[in-house]
Design goal:
alpha+beta
Amino acid sequence: MVQSLSEKKITSEYIAARMRKKTFFARDCRYVAEHILGDILLIKKGRSVLAGKIVETEAYPGKEDDASHAFKGKNTKRTSTLYSQGGVAYVYFIYGKYWCFNIVTGKKGDPQSVFIRALEPVCGMEKMKKLRGTGDMGKLTCGPCRWTQAFAIDRTWSGRPLTSFSACILKQAGKKNNLARGQRIGVDYAEQGREEFLRFYLKDNPFVSKK
């Protein structure tokens, strides 16, 4: 069942008390990928607030990960954002029409990231439905390209800080007893990386893209 969060509750004080700071994102991507499960990704667009609980992530350790865009230190115009200090977004285009959203982690120059695969919508659902062009809640944000469409994510987000009142991760209290791990999805090209258990998800949540 989808949980809701009233826009009236999302005040500056509410955000300030829960916002993940830059120091949190300076950690290893595996730590971040696991510990942001259950947290809220919040984006303010004008008067609208879009928010979703993070229910599925993947960790990409960087230079030594043959599934990473930065494998062997690859640094191009597309991937340069990965070399930033942790705490900014890394967004890229796939299949000629979809956007994928990652959070850069680690220290500057160490291209680690966390891929956000799925969210559970908690605020701004009507706006999300319009952006997605569907009224089907079950298909609203249950996948990496679905949720980015529901949040109107595009190229302009790459490099944007995720530690501000307009775009941030809100820490949520409570233990995550339903945490599960698995192999990352869509990385069959990676001879070593495809075997790594670097996908983290909340196993009982219906918005996880793949059990």
